[in-house]
Every structure is written in C-alpha cells, then in structure tokens.
Amino acid sequence: MPKWEYCAIGPIQQDEAAKWKGFYPQLIYFLKDGLKEQRISKEGNISERDILAKTIAELGENGWELISTGDSVITSSKGMHYLYFKRIKQST
User: Would you list the DSSP string of 34-76?
Assistant: First the structure.
C-alpha cells in the first residue's frame, strides 16, 4: 500500500465580485513533526494570480495531485481558501 505526503497552497481569497484579492500565499507541507511553511515569493513583474498558477503547475510536474479545495483546516479565518494536494511519498 502506498504512503502519501500532503501539502496545501493558501490562503487564497476573493472579494465579493470574485476578483483576486492580492497577497502571496504559501506552500504548507504536512509532516510528522508538524507544518513546514514556505512563502511563495514574487518573481519579477509577475502577478499574484500568475504566481499561483505557476506554483500549481510546478506541483503537478512534481507528481502532486489536487485532491480538495476548501476552507482552512489550519486557521479559523473565514473566507480563506486552500488547495490541498497529495503524492506518493518520495523515497528518502
């Protein structure tokens, strides 16, 4: 039976008009020792929306599969959404 590893991207927030509300989310890895958070930083003149798209594409290239979207299981902030991913655990 395969073992899995998990991560999330977030928080992602949209306003009432469903427009992107800009701030850079982070990658959150769920580890046996707790959470490991990695801020997604801006590269050059790329928008928040494009950096999110680029991060999602990179996760897919690295074997991560989107399994869920929804409110945070990490914080109780309303209106903050996360994208949850899994992949078969990499050999160490």
Answer: EEEEEEPPP-TT--HHHHHHHHHHHHHHTT-EEEEEEE-SS--
